[in-house]
Amino acid sequence: MITPKDNDTFVRRFRKKMSKKDLKFNSRTIHGGQHPDKAYGAVMPPIYQTSTYAQTTPGGHQGFEYSRSANPTRTALENSLASIENGTYGLAFASGLAAIDAVIKLLNPGDEVVSTNDLYGGSYRLFKQIFEKYGIVFHFIGMQSIAAIEEKVNDRTKLIWVETPTNPMMNVIDIKAASALAKKHDLLLALDNTFATPYLQRPLDLGADIVMHSATKYLGGHSDLVVGALVVKDKDLADKLYFIQNASGAVCGPMDSFLTLRGIKTLHVRMQRHCENGKAIAEYLAKHPKIEKVYWPGFETHPNHNVAKAQMDDFGGMISFVPNGSSYDDAIKIVEKLEVFTLAESLGGVESLAGHPASMTHASIPKEEREKSGVVDALIRLSVGIEDVDDLIADLEQAIG
Ligand SMILES: *Cc1c(COP(=O)(O)O)cnc(C)c1O
């Protein structure tokens, strides 16, 4: 029988053997924060489908008491998340929105938040329709101008919430400059890294305090789960977030933790292909006579291309475009004709998806508010998957006509 003491030696040995700090990103997606399971040496962490853990005497346990507080499969995922984001502490939640909810719960009534204006529709809804009720004040602004952020900062401001590239307009916000501003005014900087993933951009290295993910998207990568994540470096901040995670209880379950962890192991391989296919499709659309506008940070003509080049290693597979004429009906016709692209919410899976923000992901944002940031009725958003790019282009060709 393996006693707890032997277990610890076992774990320590493997930790030492694979000292993860030295590994490069493409190895950390696979090994970061991981060690073979204590019980039988399983290479993949088992799905610990249990709510509770036997104790030999009150408090006599192996670090796990109750699965809301901690579960070994979730811990394995949380360690992986910390490793790939160059952080120290990872926290896995039941959804991306549950992760954002935990961050905003750091605040008190009267506190103010400066946020990106064209952010994910669900984040906007959470801020406006849930947290404003509790007296937290949100300012939504175009963050391409750092001066515009500073204009909104006052002595009640506590948090800057950044999403970059933004959804669905693909604006790019300068993370280093935003973090310098946050430090100057003693604010927290939280960054939604869902679109870029740590394969393309590492916000903690650029000075952000909190990285957030909808792991539902690229990290999971297979459109088979809904999971959220936070990663931080600072212990005090990690303790506060952990307290909220446990007290509010929106944790990631063991099965979803396992699937997310499995997804992360191929993140770098998938992202490489998402970027290649994304580039080919962005260039195809830009040349198409029936397309009016294409939004993709890889274009030299993109207004924030230089910032994107400085803070991202490549430009990703998210593209938005507007067909000629810019009518609601034209956009609907195109998305309905697509065959290889699936018309669906979400993004970041192996399969290509097309979405119509005005009627789908961003329907919860008032039209007037939406159009201010460029989310017009005819805008179509693509999440370019990892299929053969020739098939994807042929599909767009027949749909655009
Ligand atoms: C999907 C998404 C979220 C919300 O995450 P869920 O997992 O759906 O709760 C937040 N931010 C961005 C950028 C997203 O794409």
From TrEMBL:
Instruction: Please state what class of enzyme this protein is.
Output: lyase
Q: Which InterPro entries match?
A: Cys/Met-Metab_PyrdxlP-dep_enz, Cys_met_metab_PP, PyrdxlP-dep_Trfase, PyrdxlP-dep_Trfase_major, PyrdxlP-dep_Trfase_small
Instruction: Please indicate if the UniProt record lists Lyase as a keyword.
Output: yes
Q: What is its EC number?
A: 4.4.1.8
The Swiss-Prot or TrEMBL record lists the needed cofactor(s) as: pyridoxal 5'-phosphate
The alphabetized UniProt keywords are:
Lyase, Pyridoxal phosphate
Query: What is stated as this protein's family in its record?
Result: Belongs to the trans-sulfuration enzymes family.
Q: What name does this protein carry?
A: Cystathionine beta-lyase
> Which taxonomic lineage does the organism of this UniProt entry have?
Bacteria, Pseudomonadati, Bacteroidota, Flavobacteriia, Flavobacteriales
